[in-house]
Design brief:
- By secondary structure, the protein is α/β, with parallel strands linked by helices.
- It is built from eleven helices and six strands.
- Strands 2-1-3-4-5-6 form a six-stranded parallel sheet, sandwiched between helices.
- The radius of gyration is 17 Å and the shape is globular.
- The two termini are 30 Å apart.
- 37% of the residues are buried.
Length: 212
Amino acid sequence: MADAIRVLLVDDHQVVRRGLRTFLEVQDDIEVIGEAADGASGVARAEELRPDVILMDVKMPGSDGVEALRSLGELGNPARVLIVTSFTERRTVVPALRAGAAGYVHKDIDPDALAGAIRSVHAGHVLLQPEVAGALLAQEGSGENSRAGSLTERERQVLALIARGRSNREIARALVLSEKTVKTHVSNILMKLDLADRTQAALWAVRHGISD
């Protein structure tokens, strides 16, 4: 499986890891290359094995998923992290996404949908299960529609590519623009939507159907 997506499982429950491994090992394009039982061990294994995608729980004893995400970011580890957890409250979802998670799904997700989620985040997309997106939207203000309407068509195109994980250089190439022009568009998008960074912009795009 030379071209298989290499996956690391990080969860403190052995039965969960065993169940995930059993299902994923029958997928032709996914290979489970290792396991870890907490965040710190997960970071160490990620540095050792260099997986493409990490399936990680949020709540674990010792170093949790959010701490692990921050550590991976500080180390510059390129793995895409898909959170697989029982916790979908806003207070749990938001810190994980801000720490760099590429996706967030509930543990009761259909197995085939989980395989699809792995493929999606590996391809560079930001993925949220509907109930997770709902948790984020629960406290949204009434000004969302007006902010969306303030975007130009070009800004919407740039935002859609941000949501797909594209860099400024890749966006410039796709839209036949200079990188400087793309940076200007990104700055305008963040200002108009009152967002702090590209990750928040990507999540906003997913929630509002601009990433399709």
